[in-house]
Design brief:
3 helices; globular; Peptide Deformylase; two-stranded antiparallel ribbon; alpha+beta; 7 strands; binds nickel (II) ion
């Protein structure tokens, strides 16, 4: 089921999300819905707070061509970051059509709980590394625009407020 994506600014996007205590059918359904919502948007990553659920669940698939590689990560944690940084032009499904360069560690090691209840670990590089860090930030109420200067951030926020007013009228 495709769920509506919250648009910034929204207090639900600023919350610290709760860890998931156990993998339940509800969590599995949430992850499946989030993947469906992400592919439909389309996007390469989505965090639960973006669909109004303040739980530590993210989904992603950074494969642009070829077979899809849907991933669902519960309680994801960065356990190591490289000193090397890389810069990507980031966007966010909660901040449509706005992009800006953000500098982050180029590689990260992440540990999470899979939907099968097993602990998993993987090292991410390239776009995957940027994406997983962007999505984990969402679980801490942080958006990519929080890395920008105040003027740029305010400009984007005003555009989003206008977009929301227009959508509310439509
Ligand atoms: Ni985002």
């Amino acid at each position: 089921m495709i769920r509506p994506i919250l648009i910034h600014p929204d207090p639900r996007l600023k919350k610290l999300c709760d860890p998931v205590a156990e993998i339940t059918p509800e969590i599995q359904r949430l992850a499946a819905d989030m993947l469906e919502t992400m592919y439909d948007a389309p996007g390469i990553g989505l965090a639960a707070p973006q669909v109004g659920v303040t739980k530590r669940v993210i989904v992603m698939d950074c494969i642009k061509e070829g077979d899809p590689e849907p991933m669902a990560l519960v309680n994801p944690e960065v356990i190591w970051s490289s000193e090397d940084l890389s810069t990507y032009e980031e966007g966010c499904l909660s901040i449509p059509d706005q992009y800006a360069e953000v500098k982050r560690p180029a590689e990260v090691q992440v540990r999470w709980l899979g939907l099968d209840g097993q602990v998993q670990e993987r090292q991410f590089a390239g776009l995957w590394a940027t994406c997983v860090q962007h999505e984990i930030d969402h679980l801490d109420g942080k958006l990519f625009i929080d890395y920008l200067g105040p003027l740029k951030r305010q400009m984007i926020t005003r555009k989003m407020e206008k977009l929301k007013r227009e959508r509310a009228r439509a």
